[in-house]
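Appendix B, Record 12. Input sequence as logged:
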Amino acid sequence: MKRLLCLSLVLVMTIALFSGCKFGKDIVTLNVYNWGEYISDGSDGLMDVNAQFEKEFGVRVNYKTYESNESMYTLLESGAAEYDVVIPSDYMIGKMIKEGMLAKLNFDNIPNYKYIDDEYKNLEYDPNNEYSVPYTWGTVGIFYNSEVVPTSEVEAKGWDILWDKKYAGKIFMFDNARDSFMIALKKLGYSMNTTDPDEWKAAYEELAKQKPLVQGYFMDQVFQKMTNEEGVLAPYYSGDGANMITGEDGNDKIKYYIPDEPGHGTNLFVDAMCVLKNSKNKELAEKYINFMCRTDVATDNAEYICYSTPHKEALNEIDEEIRTNPMFYPPEEKLEHTEVFITLPENINKLQKELWIQLKCLREDRPDWWPFPN
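Logged structural output:
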């Protein structure tokens, strides 16, 4: 009898609790799709950004993550999921604009846009800045275990170090076409935005030569593999150095190098916040973007994720150790030979996709196998 009475009391209390819960059926849900480990979550004494937005606006944030621009695009293009806010990279933003997937922003709802540095506005992927608000920027470089791979050797060889046979089986590569081909194109001295099919095929040949040396093609898994010393060389995004080197499970043997040789530099990327064309909560989505551009929010985000911030006031507020770290905020001369990705013509996108599938299917016992008609 006591057990039944107790259970009844619990049931009554539960009903009362949820009847007053702010996430009831009438509460609006904002659906946000972002990269993994790419927002301050309340750890390290910093703001839980989504929880704070929920508290201030009385809404629910349904927050999901993805590993690459391509996986994000595939899901959205298929119509298998609906989101309001998405944070793609430069070239993918251009592609989504072209395909009518993004909504033009009402900047009256985003007054904090004024804090974004002009240097990151009106770039080629969104020349009139109608569809996007910059969130972070960074570089692609080489993470290496300095106890195994001497710094002097990395600096002397640049991208060529990723083709060095003495590190066979200890090299990781990106598991996405655009970044992997960028490296091969820059190694050859070509633009990573080339529209010459012969240059793309030459880059494929470089990646095919490299494949026997590569332990695997990875995205976020590379953090653990490098810190566990399963490999010694990995190209990746600058902001993730915080995880690999100084994070809780970091490895201080790991160093970062930005290839900066004339004609053989690297990618300077910009990730930006956008609203999807089919968003049912466009005004709320714009308010979310504005919230993300608020100085206290942008500061905590920048300190948590360690990607470089385009927010002028946040840059002055973040910890000096981060602000002066050349991995995150490199000197101007290191950026002199960088390029920003642009959206490629459809015939080049098709060729890139075909070459990537060919590379991933390539086997040493069938080097001439080709799955596409000439």
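The CA atoms of residues 36 and 94 lie 21 Å apart.
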